[in-house]
Every structure is written in structure tokens, then in C-alpha cells.
Amino acid sequence: MKISADFTVVPDDFAKAAAPEYRVDGVPAISFPFYIDEVAPDARYLHWAFTDPDSIPVCGFEWIHWIVANLPIDALMFDFNDSHALAIPPDFSRQMPGMIPEAVQGRNSSASHFVGRSSDASLIMRYNGPQPPDKDHDYCLHVWATKQPLPGLNQGFWLNEMFHRLREAEETPDQGVMYVTGRA
């Protein structure tokens, strides 16, 4: 599997310099678009985590910006004649609950009691764009594809729960990783 985007630096609309109308409680809330190519032919579900390993020295843990599980591949619009068969559109995080209710989004780091920001689902269970406070950070988008949905994951699941379900899967999930930079 290959994960890509039309950028290597997260554009302003999806990150620290996002306009006020693209924010929730001051946090960038419009998710960026990306592509998923060369998915295993028997895969039926997508799952992903967008994280910031460079946040560890800043806050003491890897910041979770967005997690998704059990997104049916068939629910995505795609064109077999397109070089990017599967495209995740901009603002998918906010649109997905209405478009594909069987897919679930987990809690990001804004839900942490160490951060204590909010209990608002539109902030803690959706995309939170990069806002590195100290320097440019490198971010990781890790995508997995499986034949079956991951059991027991509901809206607001935690990242470790998804990792457990991926490990327990009867198959070895197809996977791909993309790294992008967020400007300070």
C-alpha cells in the first residue's frame, strides 16, 4: 500500500495557520486530503492514525491528531481509471459521520486529561491539525487495510484499542505510511 498527498508540508488550511472558520475552539479542524494506492485486492476496510512523534519532547507523549477505524473501502467514491483509486477528500473528518456512519473516529490527544481541553466531540473525536509550538514537526499518517472490520471499536475509541484489534486480526493487515511536515 502507498499513502501520498499533493504536499510534503501540511497546507495552512489544515494546520496552525488555518483561518478562524476552519477551527473548533481555536484548533484546526479541517482534515487534509490524501491518497491510498495499491491496496491489497482482498482488503475491505481502512483504519488510520495521524500522529506527531516530535511532540514527545514538548508534551511527554506522541500527540494523536486523528484516528479512524472500520471505514468500508466500498463506501469511498473511486474511479478505477484514476491513478489515485482511493482519495480521502478535504474535511473528511467532519463529513464522515453523516456520509459513512459505520466508520468510527477515536479520541485524539485533546481528550487527554493531561490537556483538559474539552469534552466536545467535534474537537476530541475528529481531526486536530498540526500546531507545533517549538519548531517544525514531522507527522506520521499510518494506514492499515483489513478484510474484516475491527471488532469492538465504537465512536470515541482509544488508539491502543485499535492497535490491540489490529494485532488480534486473523490476517496480517496491509499497511502504508506517509510522513509530512507541519510548520511552527
From TrEMBL:
CDD domains: PEBP_bact_arch (cd00865)
Coiled-coil parts of chain: none
InterPro entries: PEBP, PEBP-like_sf, YbhB_YbcL/LppC-like
SUPFAM superfamilies in UniProt: PEBP-like
Pfam families: PBP
Family: Belongs to the UPF0098 family.
Protein's UniProt name: Raf-like protein
